[in-house]
Amino acid sequence: MHISESPLKATYDDQGYVLVPELIPPDLLPTLRAACDRVVAKTRTGAWPHRRTVGKQFPPFDDTNPDSWGVQHVMHPALGEPVFARWYTSEGVRAVAAALLGCETGALQMELFNLLINPLNHDFALRWHRDDVRENATAEEEGEALAAWSHGVQWNTALYEDGCLYLVPKSHKVPRTDEQRAHSTTLVPPHDPLAMPGATRLVLQPGETVFYNSNVLHCATYDAKQRRTTLHASMGDTRGGSTRARNVLQHGLGWMKETRFRETLDEPGQRMLDALIEMQSSVRGDVGYSLSG
Fold first, then answer.
1. Contact between 157 and 219 (Cβ < 8 Å)
2. In a 10 Å sphere around its CB, with 0-12 CB exposed, 13-18 middle and 19+ buried, how is residue 209 labelled?
3. Residue 148: what pLDDT?
């Protein structure tokens, strides 16, 4: 079967997302859970400063709230957890990403790898959004942005059961309807995510992954009483040039140019890193931020 004809890609292209079981080998799941426990502990105690703070939905993040809903840059060598880079660059992950993007694995571009966690003291939510389309974009602007967004894939891999993500299937292909726009033009998270026309809730089981087009309409809810430890990552396709620069570089990836990070990667990982650095070098000036809130 040719890579572009895979059932995974057909579902992904049609729905804007696809579920993939067992992307983590069973013997690696305990290792990843233990590594996550350590980096979450460092984040909660302030030993690791790069975090997603409650009260701030999108970058740039700040320190105005001590509670966290995410850990940034889990492949950073200062964290001392090489299992993250080993899994991100593994043959299994690369094969699925390449299949969904319709490219060869040699054309993959390294991007983001973070961790989504439950806050300890506050419930939290993300508003309905597309990752790189402003909430006030016109229908014409939205259509143009969606048409150009085919060179990257994002995913969530749950280490424990995770029912936080809501999305609207097939919304990655068309601008919002007037009713959908009414639910997604403010910076306020929804009281009831399922009130969005067409919305569905995804419940991931441990070890299960959802790959999705990050410009599909989506939102998330975080329950402080429900454990969440979910790997959150993306990869690009070099054929996209700099189309993903803002969405990726807004997170601050200068550390990935350091020799000590390169030395943690195998040969395929280093090729992916070179592609990211080349994309970064092609951009002039400040890329800014995709969203506000």
1. no
2. buried
3. 84
